[in-house]
Amino acid sequence: MKIFIDSADLDEIKQAFEWGVADGVTTNPSLLKKAVEKRKEKGEKVDIKSYLAEILKVAKGTPVSLEVTKTDAKGMAEQGRKLFKMFNPVANNVYIKIPVNPAFKEDDKTHFDGIEAIRELSKEKIPVNCTLIFTPEQALLAAKAGAKFLSPFAGRIDDLIRTNAGGKFDKTEYYPMEGKEEKGDTLGDNGVVSGIDLVRQCVQIIEQYRFESEVLAASLRNPRQVRESALVGAHIATLPFEVIKDMLKHPKTYEGMDSFTKDIVPEYEEL
Ligand code: E4P
Description:
Blueprint: E1 2-6, H1 10-18, E2 25-26, H2 29-41, H3 48-58, E3 64-67, H4 73-91, E4 94-99, H5 113-123, E5 128-133, H6 136-145, E6 149-152, H7 154-165, E7 181-182, E8 185-186, H8 195-208, E9 214-217, H9 223-231, E10 236-239, H10 241-246, H11 251-262, H12 266-269
Parallel strand pairs: 1-2, 1-10, 2-3, 3-4, 4-5, 5-6, 6-9, 9-10
Antiparallel strand pairs: 7-8
The structure holds erythose-4-phosphate.
C-alpha cells in the first residue's frame, strides 16, 4: 500500500519525504488554510504560487493532489485545467481533486457536476483524484467517469455513524472495521458499517471489475485504521503527519530499548 501525506504543511511534507515513507501528497482547502495561517502567525509572508511549487518539488516523482474550489461543472473543469497548466510543469506530478458531488444540499442542481468535471479533465488526460466519497456507488460512478484516485473518507463516515447513534466521541477514537452493535443492531449508514468497511467495499468493486482507478483511503485518524486499510486492500492511504508518527510507537518497543541499552557490554560497544 502506498502512503501519502495528508497535509499542506511544507515542513511536515519535507520530513515525511526525508524519512522515505511518503509516496505522494494530498491537500485540501482546509489543510492549505491551516498551513498558510501557521506561516503567517510566524510573521512570514506566503506567496501561494511559490509555496505550492515548493511542495511539488519536494514530492517530485510522486502525485500531489490540488483541490478545486469552484462548485459547478464548468468552473471546476476550468479551474482544474488552470491549476494543472500552472503547476504541472514544476515537477510533472499534479492531480486535480474534484468532489464526487459538489451539491451543498439535496435540492441543489449540481449533483452530477463533479462527475461531469471528472469526465472532462480525464478526457484531456489530466489525472483526477475524486474526493468526498461516502458510498461505494459514488466510487463506482467516479471510476466510470475516469478518476485515477477514488477517495473514500473513512474517518468522516465513522463520525456520521457515531453521531447518528447519538454517542459522544473523540475525533481520533478507534471505530472497528466490522462496525459496532447497539441494542442488537449493527450501526451503519446505507449498508456501510464503518469507514474501513467503506474502503473495503470500494476496493472490492474496483478490483472485481478491473477498473484502473486506485482506492485512496482518506480521512484516517489513527494507526489502526491505516493497518485495516492495508488489510482490506486499499491501494493508497493518505495520512496526517501525526498518524505517520504514531504508527511507530509502542510501549514494548520503548521497554525493549531500555533493557537492551542497559545490557550493552563495554567490549561490544567498543567494537
Ligand atoms: C483527503 O484527501 C482529505 O484531505 C482528508 O483525508 C480529510 O480528512 P479529515 O476528515 O480528517 O479532514
